[in-house]
Structure formats: structure tokens, C-alpha cells
Design goal:
540 residues, alpha/beta, Rossmann fold, Cytidine Deaminase, domain 2, 3 domains, 6-stranded mixed sheet, 39% helix, elongated
Amino acid sequence: MEASLKKVTRALLSVSDKTGIVEFARKLAEHGIDLVSTGGTSSLLRQHGLAVRDISDLTGFPEMLDGRVKTLHPKVHGGLLGIRDNPEHQAKMKEHEIAPIDMVVVNLYPFRQTILKPGVSIEEAIENIDIGGPAMIRSGSKNHHDVAVVVDPADYGRIVTALDENSGSLPFSLRFELAQQAFQHTAAYDAEIARYLAGQLAGAKSSNLPPRIDLALEKSADLRYGENPHQKAGLYRIAGVAENGIATAEQLQGKELSYNNLLDSDAAWELVLEIHRMHLAESRAAGAITPHDLPVTCAIIKHTNPCGVGIARTATEAFLNGKATDPVSAFGGIIAFSGTVDGQAAQEIADMFAEVIIAPEFTSEAREVLGAKKNLRVLRMPIEVKATEVLELRRISGGMLVQEKDRELLDEEKFEIVSNRKPTQAELRGLRLGWAICKHVKSNAIVYAVEHQLVGVGAGQMSRIDSVRIGAMKAQLPLAGSVLASDAFFPFRDGLDEAARHGITAVIQPGGSLRDKEVIEAADQHGIAMILTGMRHFKH
């Protein structure tokens, strides 16, 4: 036998997730491996006719304290930690009648699933913190030279294959890989617990930023490459965070999503959600609370900035309104809808090249139309009305920036009409839409809009007046009669003078400039209605 191969003679099985455990245990038994087990796992294996020793028979000590103590015993950890080719270890094991355990199959109490349950108490969460499981995993993984540690049911198949190929033995390379996975598993588990407890502490202190953040990231997919072909990339999800989003969308068809597709898709979906929630809030304020009567929003994104937004009663009209903003830039864009895409809307989209389409649902006719475009990526994404309170993290050299997600849109208490002329109801609707869009445009951001449509965008410029000019230059729809939204204050009146030259009738902006008075005077001179929000929405 090769030196790297180790015979498996005894396995300890104790799993919360019992997926495949009976079949796996049966394969172990076929190789003559002695099975030792605990509680529910032991009962399940016996029900299926397998010969199993209870852990209490191995330790000579009963499970106690409501199951809190069952595997924390020298006969378990000695059997895992004893080095097989160390004479002193072997002598001590023989002296204390400690039998070697060559494989431990453990997955942990479902802490993550427990804390995700509505209304779960901290006491219930605490009881689902596994102690014996992580201890066995760590003991076995430390001694991976002799012991195989299995924490993922997905590995059962390849372990059985290795046992079959090596007459009941496992190679060192596999044991080493399993140990690495096992330590990753316990690290992620402990991080979930620490994150949960930090959240409880933060809630008690009325602070959303904990003093320490431990992230466990699980790879969802390898991507073809990153922003550029020479960069490797992957999609990861934060373990233990129940957040629905583009990373969890169901892909119905098309090529695999690229790094840039995912960034743009996220930008499109966040904008659609923003406007959908705005419409829902307005509807409820008016006394209607059913979301089924809300208009459909369509957002078209290129390079994370909106190049088209349309609002209408149907997905087709919303798309046509959005496309009309900038038909050239819409080509090859990411298209997101807040409502169901039907066959007519799908046909309009199919007539134009697009990279990704995202919607809560697609009719069978739409699926058939879009199915003819084999490379087109189609994502189904449910509308989440409730905003999740997840922190935003951004990598910088040597560290990480952390902030609360910008969930606010307008603070009604600070909302102030400062011009002589008051905005009309149509202008107010346009201002609200422009403000919502502006929040999702890279700073310095200027948005021209009407109540059902984005008209023009000036994004990511170093000076605000340049954004005003570029937004007007990019506009394909009439600017006269539109309104303007600015993500931050006007430092000088020149931006407003430039916008007035294009015929805008109302402005929404945060205010707070040392020259607010001059800017407001400019608005009055041009007959422009102006609203100050008292809230800024920079997006860097």
C-alpha cells in the first residue's frame, strides 16, 4: 500500500443535514468500516438496517445536558487526534482503551436556517450553536495525515469512489483537501454566529456598524473573466445573509453572465426597485394599497448608468418610452422591468440587440419569442418590496470601506419649495421620477425627465455644469418642458442658467450651497420652480 494511503476502519457520523447519509453509510459498511453515530443520525441508520454503535457505547458515558454533551470526550478526540505512527501516542491510546477514528462525517446544527426564521428568539439561536461538531471537525482536520473529515454531502460520491479504487483506503491528497474544506466550513459557521451576535449588540446600542466584520464568501460561479479578458473573476455570495438580488436571480436562458453583465444587471434592477417602491408608497398614500395597479417601470442600463427609463401601464409602452430616451445607447444594454414581460414586449426587445433582460415574470409567449435569441440572457427576479438592511462594502488598497445602504429617497420633513413659482402636479411627478433616477447615476449627476420618461442624463463629470451640458446634448427627446434633478447642490448659478437655456420648468436638488440664495434667485428670474430636498445622493 502507498504510504499516502490510509485504511478507514472506523467512521463517526453525526449530521444535521441527512441528505444522502444512509446511502453513504451503506457504502462505508460495504467496506467493513465500523459505524459509530449519535442521536437522530444513529436512529435513521438503524431504521435502514445498518449496524451502528451509539456514541455512548464508545465513550462509556451517556449523552447529557439536553444533548449539549455527547462527543466531548477523550475517547472521541483521542481517537481523532492520536498520531498513528507515533509510538507514544499509540501506547497512551492502548493504555486508555482509545480506538482510532479514521473518518468523521459531521455537518453542524442549522444555525443559519434558525436565525432566518421569522421571530426567532436569541435563546433559540443560542441553542443552535454547535459545540461538539466543530470540535470534532477541528480535531480530525488537524490530524488529516491519518483522518478524513467530511462536512459536505456533495463529497460523499467522490469519497466512495476513492474507497472503491483503493480497497477501503483514502489518499493523503484527498484527506488534505477535505481538511482545508473543513476548516473553511467551521470558519464560516463561527463567522455567522459572530455576525448574528454583533447584530444583537448593535441593535442594543442603536448602531448599524459593528466594530469588526468577518465575511465568509461562498463561490456561486466562476466567470469567464473580469472587466477585461486578462482578469480572472468569480461570483461569490455572503454566507448566512438572506438577501435576494441579482446574485440569486434565476437564469431562464442565454449565455453565462459575465462580470460586467452582473454589475450592469444589478444597477438596472436596483433602479427598477427604487421607482417601484416610490410608486407603491405614492399609491398607499393615496389610499390604494394593491401593487397590481402600479405602472410598469422599464430601465435600460449601459456601463452602470441609466440610458433609458420609461413608465407606462404595459411593459411594451414602458420599454418604448425607455428606449426613446437614447436609442443608440440602448443598443446592447441591460433591460429591467418591474412587471411581467408579455409577448408583445418581448417582440419589441427581440427586434433590438440586448445583453440581459430581467423581470419578475415572463409569459409563455414571451419565453417563446425570446427563446429564438439563444445568446440573450433572461433572468427571472421577484420584486422585493421590503428593502434589506445590508451593509455596502468596497475594497480599497489596504482596507475596506463600509457604509449603510442608501435606502432613503426623500425626507418629506426637509422637502422645501423655495421658488416663487410652485411646481405643477405634472412637474412634481417628473421631479420625483428624476430624483429617483438621479440617485442611480454616477456623480456628478444631472437628470432631465418628464413624469413618465427619462429625457437626458449627464453622468460622472468633474463639474456640475458639464453634466448639465452633456445631459442636454445627449437628449433625443424635447428638453423644453422637462424638469431637472441634481444629485447634489449647485455650487454656482451657471448650471441653472444653462439648464434654463434648454427650457426646463422645474428643478429638484438638495441645497446647502453657500450660494443657494443666488441659485434660487436664478430660478425665479427664469420662472423655474425649485425644490430643495435637504438630502444628497452621491454615487461614486
